[in-house]
Amino acid sequence: MSDPIIFDRAQVRRQRDRAAATLAEHDFLLQESADRLVDRLEDVTRSFPVALDLGCHGGELSGRLRGRFGIETLVSSDLSPRMAEKARAGGALAAAADEETLPFAEGRFDLVISNLSLHWVNDLPGTLLQIRRLLKPDGLFLAAMLGGETLKELRQAMMDAELAEEGGVSPRVSPFVDVKDAGALLQRAGFSLPVADVDPVDVTYGNPMTLLADLRGMGETNAVAVRRKTLTRRGTLMRAMSAYQERFAGPDGRMPASFQILTITGWTPAK
Amino acid sequence: MPTTLTAIDPKLLELLVCPLTKQPLRYDAERQELISDAVQLAFPIRDGIPIMLPSEARSLEE
Asked: What does pTM read for this prediction?
């Protein structure tokens, strides 16, 4: 195996398992992104009898898809069995599945859709290839993932604090796919009409600790494989939180948090 | 009926393959497992949810 392992998938799974129970308190980003995916699907004038919601979290997107877009069979899968349980409780045909080794039959799906999960995949080209094979001819792949501008304020604040307190920096926030590379990745995986674009989601927080709680609550904290296995020192964390405030607080005292949603679309060639 | 709550949906079953070999799986209804013969792994079905993670599969090798 020469491919670098960037993400610790077992850690991604643990974080999602832990997040599942209280997900609804922290899922604003998943809900917003699910709305946007549905908007995009509404622009497509065909039906999708067999669909897969890949990396479904608690079923936020699945719930919006059920009974719409000509979907007759909707499978919802997540790396986390706890998340899959939540999706099933909402009425989904749920499975626990790893996006890196998909357990689905090839050529059976009309739609593979994914809401904020694929940015945790190590071998994205390999996963895209597997997804393309799941699709029937003229099938649609539509995915939202977090893009490179995501949490730029938090990254900056953490870096400042680590340099000041510890004299060095460690990876804190996951590396993301660049929009410029996404189209080529889709093409390489055999998709036609590849499209990639980015949309900002800007929110503000009264306290950056609430942002951290939301990230943890969505299972979106750092799972970079080389991350430090020890907890962040309290002093470093406190310093980062005050750096966040000093550098980024607006006139109203609220702190911005930037998210960027990278949306990628590709079709399988018609027969 | 509680049994229908925990049973795996046949529509889901027919869309699943082994995540490693992509070959069809054998359904063991009694043990609630999906068996991949080529790699001798049994994937558990818990409360109707197939857990298709190799790390959770039971090895069938002696």
From this structure: 0.92
